[in-house]
Amino acid sequence: MDMLTNKIASEHLGKKSKGSENYDSSLLVAVPRFENRQQYGIMNDNLPFKGFDVWHAYEFSALTSTGIPVTRIMKLKYNCESEFIIESKSLKLYLNSFNMTRIGDGMEDCLNQCKKMIEKDLSSLLKCTVEVNFLENNAKKVEIFENFQNIMDFVDDRTLIIDKFKEAPEVIQVESLNDKKAYYLKFDSLRSNCRVTHQPDFGDVFIYYNSSKHINESSLVKYLSSFRSEFHFHEECCEMIYKRLYDLLDNEDELFVCALYTRRGGIDICPARWSKEVKFDDVPYLADVCVFAKSGLKSC
Questions:
Q1: Which of 1, 151, 188, 257 is deepest in the core (most CB within 10 A)?
Q2: Annotated catalytic, 258?
């Protein structure tokens, strides 16, 4: 185990968490991004991408001052330029600490006060601006990736052989074309494993790139499948995929990678990274990416 794993395991894993139903910001654990980034040549002071991390907590609940339960979906967002990320187990325990905490006169006041408390605690922890919003439990999903094509449509699954299940960038094959072309690809079988708990994490990966280079789809399936036995946080996997593709494309090419992980323990994590060349207003299907921070559940 690395130092981070030992720290979190000693504090949270396999133990009863004291005061987990009474507000306790000390439960939160921050993870330095550089621990994984430096292995892939990603420098915090010169990032090759823009982006953010968005979390949805589907089981947030607190009490009003008179004991009325208030339950909402909580959405939080912070920039990928932040020095730290939140460790998900600690976030869940922290949010659970609101469950029996009485806050506010009435439901609206309760949510407003919770929003301010969470934004303050997380912004202080991560040393960046964290935005928090509460969504109604019947909020509709915003689907902006429906026009991305399943990458398996380009692959012969009867003949494709995959035998590497630790991250294997060497399997990616690229060919040069005469003209630039835009590609919108979806891979719905991403699996990696939590660096701390070793529990499996499943998600969908959406990749857009516009380049005179073509990434062979079969080789890309091999690469994305090679995460199956990797132990990384969601944000790290998204950045690893981005960086491997970024290194193969030309500097002026557009690249966008988003990983929408499925819910585990009542929380999902949706990191998105894109090159500075991507202008969302000019790129079909990505123009609505701004809704990721405002509404919707499983989309950017």
A1: 257
A2: no
Q: Please give the Cα distance from 72 to 111 (Å, whole number).
A: 9
Residues 114 and 180 in one domain: no
17: Cα within 13 Å, side-chain hemisphere: 23
CB-based contacts of 38, cutoff 8 Å, min separation 6 = none
- 163 and 289 co-located in one domain: yes
Q: Which of 73, 107, 135 is the last residue of a domain?
A: 135
Token match 């002026």: residue? 252
In a domain, 140, yes or no: no
Q: Which residues sit opposite 210 in a β-bridge?
A: 182, 254
* Separation of CA 112 from chain center: 25
**For residue 263, pLDDT beyond 90:** no
| 26, amino acid identity | S
| Total domains in the fold of the chain | 2
For 38, the token pair is: 């430096």
Q: What is the CA radius of gyration of the chain?
A: 20
Last residue of a domain, which of 111, 135, 159? 135
| Helix or strand holding residue 188 (H, E) | strand 174-193
Q: Is 141 within a domain?
A: no
pLDDT value at 70 more than 60? yes
The Cα angle at residue 52 between residues 269 and 136, in degrees rounded to 5: 55
Q: Active-site residue among 121, 201, 253, 268? A: 201
pTM listed for this prediction: 0.87
Is 194 marked active-site?
yes
The catalytic position among 80, 194, 237, 300 is 194
Express each pLDDT in 12-39 by its tens digit: 544 555 546 789 999 999 999 998 898 8
